[in-house]
Amino acid sequence: MRKTINAITAIAMRDLIKLLRDRPRLFFSLIFPLLFVGILGTSLNSNLSADVGYSFLIFVFTGVIGQNLFQSTAAGIISLVEDRQNDFSQAMFIAPVSRLAIILGKILGESMVAIVQLLGIGIMGIIFQIPFNLGQIVGFVPAIILVCLVGGSFGLLVMSNLSSQKQVNQIFPLLIFPQFFLAGVFSPIKNLPIFLLVLSRISPMTYAVDLIRSIYYWGRPEYSKVVLHSPSVNLLVLGVMFLVMFTTGTYLFVKNDRNR
Amino acid sequence: MAKIIEVTDLTKRYKKATTNAVDGVSFEVEEGEFFTMLGPNGAGKTTTISVLNTTLDKTSGSVKVGGIEIEKDSAGVRRMIGVIFQNPSLDLNLTAEENVRFHAFLYGLFPYRLTYNMMPTDYKKKVEELARILGIEKEIHQPVKTFSGGMKRKLEIVRGLIHHPKLLFLDEPTTGLDPQSRKNLWSYLKTVRKNENLTLFLTTHYLEEAEESDRICIIDNGKIVSLGTPLDIKRDLVEEYMLLDSGNRKALTKELDNSKLKYVEDGAIKVWIKESQIQETIRNLKTKLTSIQIHTPTLEEAYLEIIDKKNEKNN
Q: Over 90: is that where the pLDDT of A38 sits?
């Protein structure tokens, strides 16, 4: 058990150290929030806020937090498909460490990476003077962890069914980008035609984004206009999604890993 | 000597494939042996190594490593082996020491610590020793991306040995290295093998590397086509002959006829003869010779002979 925890910690910390040493990657993690929050959020805010009755900048800002955590962790896990043919990941797979320990270490590591990348969004929040209070920050801590775990298990489920980087390049964007719009990262999704409503409500990112918003807007007058579900409903749905995707993904990954 | 690898009738067919990548292969490797698997691309070498190092399930057959059935205790097998992969397996953004440290954590050799300074003295001593062996005392805390190709490979080997494996798999370890780096790497591997009584399981395209091994297994289309010492393989498969010439060819051929030696006149006179008979035959010849050329079979000829024969049969 001690050796397994040791290995999980090493796998997780390696991802974090790699991020901190990778300057271009750190730079881009600052640039993307600038694009999404600074440019898209500001332009939507200038044109739509008066009509919808709340700040679109804050709407996009909170949406990007959920989307960024979910997508970053999912993409990090999926990178294992390619990594296992290259770099140190090859050595991980022949070490006396269980596949479950590798998965846990990777999800933990990629979650830390996603959280560090939040700094870019945080800086945007400070620049655009988005109001925050202590209660919101405290509420964000468990929410951020859960969103990362769900993003990681989503990535795991997708990865367990893909065997090559070519497949990843074809399929992963198809699964992640529509969720930006279905989850309402940049636009409200309270009212949708029925087919989009169904797709939106089965998309895991919807609950990730809504959880962040339900905590941020808790007690604010815009709450009912912006938030879809209460924090407890979002927590419950995300908890169930995590359990289902993590268990199925781990089972399929272990089964398909050696049986090629 | 104890057997460290026992493979019986190993077959592997990948999902959706119509033929077997490895097709009923059987062989054994003894502890401390230097065993080489040779074969063209797609012959089944990497598939065999992947099954042996427990990263790929076999379709059928029995495989034991260190006496352990691989599917019964894969972690036990993994503790016993080290693997040097075809593709580099170092984290280029990490330092040489960090690469070694993460490997040590994965094998549970030391408890996790965030920095080198926080590591136990035992570990630090070991790293200092490794740095001395590699001649990188100054660079041990530098990112690996600043290292040369040969140095990176050497570091991978050093790292792969830190948990003291009994068996080291080397999957085309010198591909992409310049001749000097290859020479240095092999000189280092020979020392390690001697010091640690390590079993080496090599796959390579470089036949001169295979010459050094105790036994060679030539594999093609998933089947073993030859298995034995380099000398056996060469003797069994390659013609041994010498080329003779003389100002008086008639007298020379008469003498050869009398000695009942098989020959053919093909520019010079090509005489089929075993290496052990050459000395005596030359001594007995009375005709004055103008040239003698002894053909020593090479492993490359043996290898090409085997692969060509196999291809002819298939066609």
A: no
Read off the pLDDT of residues A83-94 as tens digits, 9 standing for 90 and up. 776 667 778 888
At A54-82, the pLDDT tens digits run 888 899 899 999 999 999 999 988 888 87
Question: CA A228, CA A206: separation in Å to the nearest integer?
Answer: 9
In chain B, what are the domain boundaries? 3-93+143-234, 239-296
- 3-class SS at B66? coil
pLDDT of A191 above 90: no
What pLDDT, in 10s, does the model give residues B87-119? 778 888 889 999 999 999 999 889 999 899 999
Tokens (6 digits) for A149: 């775990």
Reported as a single tens digit per residue, the pLDDT across B232-253 is 887 776 677 888 999 888 899 8
Asked if A211 and A183 touch (Cβ cutoff 8 Å), the reply is: no
The helix-helix angle for A194-202 and A165-182 (nearest 10°) equals: 120
Check if CATH label 3.30.70.20 holds for domain B3-93+143-234.
Answer: no
CATH topology of domain B239-296: Alpha-Beta Plaits (3.30.70)
What is the mean predicted confidence (pLDDT) over B178-190?
81
Report helix, strand or coil for B294.
strand
Interface test mutation site (partner B, options A100, A104, A260, max chain B beta carbons within 10 A): A260
- A94 to B93: CB separation less than 8 angstroms, yes or no: no
State yes or no: pLDDT of B30 exceeds 90: yes
The answer to whether B220 and B209 are in contact (CB under 8 A) is no
CA dist., res. A134 & res. A183, Å (int) = 26
- If you count them, how many residues does chain A have? 260
Tokens of A180: 């930006």
ipTM over 0.90: no
Contact between B225 and B218 (Cβ < 8 Å): yes
Residue of B nearest to A83 (CA): B89
Q: How far is B240 from chain A (nearest CA, A)?
A: 44
- What total number of domains does chain A contain? 1
Residue written as tokens 């367990």? Answer: A160
Residue A150 has pLDDT above 90, yes or no: yes
Task: Name the phi and psi angles at B165, rounded to 5.
Answer: -70, 155
- The Cα-based distances of A84 to A66, A102, A156, B186 in angstroms read 28, 11, 14, 27
For residue B25, what are the β-bridge partners?
B10
Give bridge partners of residue B201 from the DSSP assignment.
B35, B169
Q: Which amino acid is at B266?
A: D
What sign does the CA torsion over A51, A54, A57, A61 have? negative
> Which of B54, B87, B99 minimises the CB distance to A90?
B87
pLDDT number for residue A101: 92
Closest Cα to residue A225, out of A56, A54, A67?
A54
User: Is 70 exceeded by the pLDDT of residue B313?
Assistant: no
Structural domain of A75:
2-258
How many whole angstroms separate alpha carbon A152 and alpha carbon A247?
12
Q: Which residue has the tokens 């955590």?
A: A69
User: Is the C-alpha dihedral spanning A118, A119, A121, A125 positive or negative?
Assistant: positive
d(CA B178, CA A58): 58
Contacts of A142 (CB under 8 A, 6+ apart): none
- Closest CB to B102 among A14, A93, A94: A14
